[in-house]
């Protein structure tokens, strides 16, 4: 899918009727007071894709610009943090060419009802889910994309946080223990059903018994996957890495494990096959073990605790789907895709529990 600033016939944008409304006149007055001009003569349209945060394309000071905002309703703790994302994007763009710069943050809910930010627009190709049809005829694409994802993640983890003014981002000390405790707590908040509490407790207790290496903290994206990358359509190199609202500092293997939690293989259980978050079951994509080895080669890190870290990433992913389903139940979102997310979340947690046996064997 090509994301292009031209509104006419753009498959990356929802129609005017599908675009969620906002008080654009009030937004225009707010931006004018801050020295910016939004062109309301051009229709503001919402980007397609995504499961939570809303992204709109508008014209500010003569340039296509992204307005990004969280969903409506009560939000999970620590999620959809526009202020955090703006801070990261406004600094990290100085270090990496594939970071779209954060331009402005507004925490005043009186403008459009929620905090929001403005971000530099980057046009390019987005590969969503398991659909490789935009690259039809590119037999080399799976190998190129596999290498690109690993190299991009390694480049992010190589950034000196102090050099870009992000040395105080997050709390890297005790990061993994806090992640286990935090996701266990979030899981308990959405644990409806007779089997879920016990399943969550089994995984949480197993994770708490594991020994994780102490590594130098790096900047983390915390949801690194293919559809959060905008690509050059010709070279498939990254134009932008987006969706930074959970960015922080911590153990770099957490990001690698997150990527691998989405990285399905042809011989995976049906649950991971159905997840279809990335097209990695297609012929030519690397296997997870290949990804891990290449990452270790690029970074020089020891990754012997990666199997246990992947269990943590699957634990998190299952709970995220439960949270998204809760937003649908509460009416904060109307997207019909959310209706089945409780089952998806529980199935992923079952895979995580099954993976604990393999992790104990070092697989």
Biggest sheet layout: 5 strands, antiparallel
The H-and-E topology, N to C, reads as EHEEEHEEEHHHEEEEHHHHH
| Percent of residues in β-strands | 5-15%
Percent helix range: 25-40%
How are the strands ordered across the major sheet? Answer: 2-3-4-6-5
CATH superfamily of the largest domain: Aminoglycoside phosphotransferase (APH), C-terminal lobe
Query: What name does CATH use for the topology of the largest domain?
Result: Aminoglycoside 3'-phosphotransferase, Chain: A, domain 2
> What is the name of the CATH architecture of the largest domain?
Alpha-Beta Complex
CATH hierarchy class name of the largest domain: Alpha Beta
The domain count comes to 2
How much is the average pLDDT?
91
Describe what is shown at a glance.
The protein has about 375 residues and is of the alpha+beta class. About 40% of the residues lie in helices and about 10% in strands.
Give me some keywords for this one:
alpha+beta, Aminoglycoside 3'-phosphotransferase, Chain: A, domain 2, Phosphorylase Kinase, domain 1, 2 domains, globular
